[in-house]
Amino acid sequence: MTVILLRHGRSTSNTAGTLAGRSEGVALDERGREQARAVAERLGDLPIAEIVRSPLLRCEQTVEPLAAELGISAVVEDRLVEVDYGQWTGRTIKELLAEPLWKVVQQHPSAAVFPEGEGLAAVQQRAVQAVREHDARLAAKHGRDVLWVACSHGDVIKSVISDAMGAHLDTFQRIVADPASISVVRYTSTRPFVLRTNDTGADLSAFVPKAEEPSTEDGANSSDAVVGGGSGS
């Protein structure tokens, strides 16, 4: 199964330079709404079987145009919610740079636990479990390779990509997930394949499953050889 990991569009918190976390009412700004419409244009012609999203408003607003274009309703998945940053929630990034924990988050994230919040290792565990479970459910439902979308948040998406790469969580700060970017992972019976990361504008037609092009034993088909090595734009 192939999942498009979609980060929400630019939010009012992004432009304010604050750490939104799970704060209520953090919406897309005007640029973010434009990005959401652009996502619908990019993905609207693809045979997307399902849209799964974080329960937070900025993800709801990001997938609304796409869901309307496809004529489907998004499924809310609590395990794709933003990191619980605890006492860091709502504070400015500039202020957080002076916190001793900031260096841990950047250099040793697997050990980072936010005060009165959750640890990044726990975030990865819940997010990967959610993606894999939805993937398995869709595989059982459709009985074939399908394309679906999971809309979430930067650190959550980076943790899923890190797992798909078979890399330690401590490497996840090397991964970039910009607002409204997509990353594409194909899950197979043997291992995942990371086909694209932090893509904000490239053509996606190469990811449409082809019935006449069966997968090889390890799950990669000929299209993977073309697109799998690039990170997009």
Give a written overview of the molecule.
With 233 residues, the chain is α/β, with parallel strands linked by helices. It has helices spanning 12-16, 30-43, 57-70, 93-96, 100-107, 120-142, 154-164, 222-227; strands at residues 2-7, 48-53, 75-76, 147-152, 182-187, 192-199. The chain contains eight helices and six strands. It has a six-stranded mixed sheet, with helices on both faces. Helix 2 (30-43) packs parallel to helix 3 and helix 6 (120-142) packs across helix 7. The chain is globular. It starts with a strand and ends in a 6-residue tail after the last helix. 40% of the residues are buried. Residues 214-233 have low confidence and may be disordered.
Structure characteristics:
8 helices, 6-stranded mixed beta sheet, alpha/beta, 233 residues
